[in-house]
Amino acid sequence: MHHRRLFQNKKNHSQLTPLHALFVIGFLFAINAALTAYINSNFIGEFVSERFIGILYVVGSAVSLMGLIWMPKFLRKFGNYKTILTGLSLAALALLVFALTKSTTMIILFFIIHLGIKAVIFFGLDEFIEKYSKQSNTGKTRGLYLTALSLGWMISPFVSGMIVDRFGFQAVYLTALVFSLLTILGVVFWFRDYKDPVYPKKVPLFDIAKKIFRRKNIYKVYRVNLLLQFFYAWMVVYMPIYLHQHLGFEWTTLGIMFAIMLLPFVLFELPLGKVEDKKYGEKEIMSIGIIIIALSVVVIAFINSQNVILWTALLFLTRTGAAMVEISIETYFFKKVEGKETDIISFYRNASPIAYITAPLLVSGLLLLMPIQYTFIVLAIFVVTGLKFSTTLVDTK
After folding, report:
1. pLDDT, tens digit, 9 for 90 and up, residues 203-244
2. What is the C-alpha separation between 125 and 339, in angstroms, rounded?
3. Which of 214, 215, 237, 217 is nearest to 225 (CA)?
4. Cα separation, 17 vs 5, whole angstroms
5. pLDDT tens for residues 73-102?
6. Which of 61, 111, 194, 241 could pair covalently with 356 via S-S, beta carbons 3.0-4.6 A apart?
7. Residues 285, 45: Cα–Cα separation, whole Å
């Protein structure tokens, strides 16, 4: 009841419900994250060799993984509001460093922090969402939230591409800093009086893993999520390098291509989430999405063309499959798990940093054996193994 009174008392200041406020905050932070996501590997490539880029992603993701493991402890000790504000402040500081310094040491240090802190922030946003959402509307709520994030992700590559071509990488990081500060202001304005739920006591990591393994369907959806994050890590780090450095696409062109590529998340996740609320079709939609990803990724290895329309259509297809998988696993997982189960949510969210550790390590090794385009065949093989888990899920009821 407290959170209802809180937002009623602020009615003169804002007509937004808690969930709507979170959609706005998620949108702002997604813009901040997406502005830099597709240029990070090329930016850091100005300071280190191409092969060392993967190692930095591994270290940053290891920091992210540790942050997620400690997140339940942070929540018990400091609460979600203070934890997420600290994370946002560190993210903003990293962007400021990128914009103002040319020091390789500082860039590397804050690049690791920049990569490591995002998962903690998204975890905090998940906690807010779980507090204010209803179990019966999980698909709709997650669909709206993911659509808000996707709008930010869709707009940003186009903007960052134009900025890089005209003003350089530093200007992109300054722009991202503005949205980072707006995100901080949003959290302060709407959630400064936030009351945390009672978080469970510390559970050893091994015990959490055993608990998830015993809950077979949670384990299966976690494995699919791990493969999806593996796909994201591979594509985010190496697709821009391949298209820009090997095929010669300009950043402005890439920005347009990436913006269109991300449209499926905006177009499909909300309606699919509503369908899954009513017809419980998570595993079917998830499985079709996996097949679409695998087939479209295989094709990447065999196209040397610089045809913008062809590449944009292919990238759009990869994200159509990804959108289907993402909304399905999010809906399924949060129908099965309550917000107070922070240990399980933390373990679930560690899929992203684990993927950003393993994917760059694997690709770095593969690049010693084959040209970059053929590594995408290996990625497709990994993705298609997800059908083993998605097709055997028991749909929610």
Report:
1. 677 777 888 888 899 999 999 999 999 999 999 888 988 998
2. 11
3. 217
4. 11
5. 888 889 999 999 999 999 999 999 999 988
6. 61
7. 38
pTM to 2 decimal places: 0.77
CA dist., res. 166 & res. 164, Å (int) = 6
Rounded CA gap, 153 and 56, in Å?
Answer: 23
**Counts for the chain of helices (H) and strands (E), in that order:** 17, 0
Angstrom distances, CA of residue 271 to CA of 49, 332, 393: 43, 15, 21
The 8-class DSSP code of residue 199 comes to P
The C-alpha atoms of residue 264 and residue 288 are separated, in whole angstroms, by: 14
On whether the CB atoms of residues 347 and 72 are closer than 8 A, the answer is no
Q: Letter for the amino acid at 192?
A: R
Block residue for tokens 């009174």: 5
d(CA 26, CA 184): 11
Name 69's Cβ contacts closer than 8 Å, sequence gap at least 6. Answer: 205, 346, 350
* One-letter identity of residue 4: R
Over residues 290-347, the pLDDT tens digits come to 999 999 999 999 998 889 999 999 999 999 999 999 999 988 888 888 766 777 887 8
The Cα 129–Cα 133 span in angstroms is 6
| CA 88/CA 128 separation, integer angstroms | 15
